[in-house]
Design brief:
By secondary structure, the chain is α/β, with parallel strands linked by helices. Helix content is about 45%, strand content about 10%. It folds into two domains: about 220 residues, no CATH class; about 160 residues, Rossmann fold (3-Layer(aba) Sandwich). The chain contains 13 helices and eleven strands. It has a six-stranded parallel beta sheet, sandwiched between helices. A five-stranded parallel beta sheet has the order 8-7-9-10-11, with helices on both faces. The two termini are about 40 Å apart. The relative contact order is 0.11.
Length: about 400
């Protein structure tokens, strides 16, 4: 594996950030002590918002400050510290100075840092982790996809099991982007192994070079936002089918479109709504009136993803792929996992969608089962208990 080559200007910026970090930490420490704020209390969650994980995690941890340094147009949640710059390049320039200055300040106030994605306050996250550990801080790494997934290991696994992989559709093998991604995820894994006190990752869907024990992430939803009562299937004139892909090829959108077209040609009458590059608010509005949601079809783990949780909480019949047997790789139980959705691989999209349209009672069956499953395992309270136990068992908190 080649070493990721860092351009000279990035190295220079990295040195500047290190200097700014130490200056900030040194000069804010007496100020914080003067105003009598605890120098080691609470969580810092950052720095990348994806699938609203940062927002929901704060709702679970409670005593936490959120830091969103990479704006996501899909969400309009508020954060304690954020960069609200539309320009990609201006935002990058802003982070060069704001990131290290903010980290120095927060490192004086907080004892626990929860990282989502492979980004950080500094360009050099490895140094960032070294700095925090030198100050006796606890670190949790949470990976949610391409931030840690190895293209090479993914292809090896799926070829061994004779199934397609989303990597086939996102980057050409042996290309420069493939090699650079492979190098980056390997270095990210090494850093997490060295410094993280706890790591969340899915062992198969997000197969990686991490050697430490990993735990599956519980995507979560506030119980007050669960859709009740279930009137969708009591009296309806037309079925509404929703597909909201974040990436057309990875989510299997061409397969969905082909299935929809074939069913329409066969005379099936339904409303099909495809949501691309839409805000999360728009997606949720459509889920509240949807009967069927088509999610993604290349999964081979127990990972559901945020859209699945939102769909089931809104009482829809969810069609997507997963492998309930993969739960053997984790020390957890998820009662109802094998019946909460219509498990559908990429070659089954048309057949399974047709099955639900022909059997409305099965549509309601999956909608009800999915709703009960999510309400049992993925509320803030249920996820919070699971996270709290892991934090205590792994010595992250006392």
């Amino acid at each position: 594996m080649k070493r990721l080559v860092v351009p000279a200007f990035k190295l220079a910026i990295s040195y500047v950030q290190v200097i700014l970090l130490h200056i900030s930490f040194f000069f804010t420490k007496p100020f914080i002590q003067k105003i009598k704020e605890e120098s080691s209390s609470g969580w810092v969650i950052g720095t990348f918002e994806i699938a609203a994980c940062m927002h929901h995690l704060k709702g679970t941890l409670g005593n936490a400050k959120t830091v969103n340094l990479f704006p996501n147009d899909s969400y309009n949640h508020s954060y304690d510290y954020s960069i609200n710059v539309k320009s990609k390049y201006l935002g990058w320039l802003y982070r060069i100075f704001y990131g290290p200055l903010l980290l120095g300040f927060l490192a004086n106030k907080h004892s626990h840092f929860w990282y989502i994605w492979h980004t950080g306050f500094l360009i050099d996250r490895d140094y960032e982790f070294k700095f925090l550990k030198s100050k006796n801080k606890k670190i949790v790494c949470m990976f949610v996809g391409n931030d840690i997934r190895s293209p090479k290991l993914s292809l090896e696994y799926t070829r061994k099991n004779n199934i397609d992989n989303l990597i086939n559709y996102s980057m050409p093998e042996n290309s420069e982007v493939f090699e650079d991604t492979e190098t980056r995820v390997m270095q990210t894994a090494i850093s997490a192994d060295l410094y993280a006190d706890l790591i969340f990752n899915f062992k198969l869907d997000q197969i990686s070079y991490i050697k430490s024990k990993v735990f599956p992430w519980p995507y979560m939803w506030p119980k007050e936002k669960f859709l009740e009562p279930n009137v969708k299937f009591d009296d309806y004139k037309k079925i509404k089918i929703v597909h909201a892909p974040s990436h057309l090829m990875i989510k299997g959108t061409p397969l969905v479109q082909a299935a929809i077209k074939k069913l329409q040609e066969e005379g099936y009458d339904f409303d099909y709504v495809e949501l691309r590059n839409m805000s999360n608010k728009t997606v949720l509005e459509n889920l509240s009136s949807a009967h069927i949601v088509l999610n993604q079809f290349y999964g081979f783990d127990i990972s559901l993803g945020m859209l699945a949780i939102e769909a089931m909480a809104n009482r829809t019949a969810l069609i997507m792929s997963l492998d309930p047997s993969a739960i053997k790789h984790y020390d957890i139980e998820l009662e109802g996992l094998d019946s909460c959705l219509l498990n559908t691989r990429y070659w089954q999209v048309y057949d399974h969608l047709k099955h639900l349209l022909d059997n409305p009672d099965r549509m309601k069956y999956y909608a009800d089962n999915g709703y009960d499953f999510v309400k049992k395992h993925y509320t803030y309270e249920a996820a919070g208990e699971y996270i709290q136990n892991l934090l205590e068992e792994n010595g992250v908190i006392n």
